[in-house]
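Justification of computing resources. Each target in the renewal requires a structure prediction run like the one illustrated here; the chain below, 80 residues long, is used simply to show the kind of job we budget for.
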Amino acid sequence: MSRLFWRWYADRQFHKWEKTVLWDMVEPYRPPRSFAPLVGTYIAAFYTGVVAAAVTEQLYKEKYWEDHPGEAVPIMPPKF
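Resulting structure tokens:
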């Protein structure tokens, strides 16, 4: 009985080592992580900035029209 136990234990240890070696060989060939979440975040940030700039410019125009009715609105000065 103990001989079967030690045979089972030795086989298990060998196969565990074999699996580790196999995955160590396969690891460099795995595909890289996806950039989709990062690209999605950058796109969302870009369009958030575009919408914010449009809203800011519209508020600038409305305030200028209140102070100077009927005049052409000059180009908004940069805010940085």
